[in-house]
Amino acid sequence: MVEEQLAARGIKDKNVLAAMRKVPRHEYVAKDLRSEAYSDWPLPIGHGQTISQPYIVALMTELLQPKKTDRILEIGTGSGYQAAVLAEIVDKVWTIEVIKELGEKAKKILEEKYPEKAKVKVADGYYGWDEGAPFDGILITCAANNIPAPLLKQLKEGGRLVLPMEGLFFNQNLTVVEKKKGGEIVTRNVCAVAFVPMTGAIRKQPRE
Description:
7-stranded mixed sheet; alpha/beta; globular; 9 strands; Rossmann fold; 208 residues; two-stranded antiparallel sheet
């Protein structure tokens, strides 16, 4: 998986590749889908949600440019796989899931495997996690129609936020948001993607 799907397609960060080798992806999918766990496509995890294909997980992680001493916030825990990859790289990961059943399941596995690194809660990710802020990086694993203002506030200057952004015609672009010194926000699109939509308070905000 790592050599054929990730390195061969341009993933270069050695820490990201090492983390993808180390985390057993089959433990984060349903038992009846474990034969497909290392295939190059997303898989359903219940409640209309999916675990992203390995390449997208690796790409989003690499775009975040995580360092060992970083504090990272993830919005959209899902199965917990992306958070596990992050926990192999950085010191602290806070992750939020809005669907109770998924959040509780992910909390059990992540806090068992990474008791000193991972914190999980069930909540609306739009509001972030004040107790853990400020964050060196934020990763949103569901498609948003705008950049949540509370998350920008919780992002350190010099930090990055990576998320799939919805366009006007139902398209989505993987987007990197950088918070420069002084608070200036700079964004750039990376590639087209397809994610489940972010729900909750974000849908009450005007589209930017």
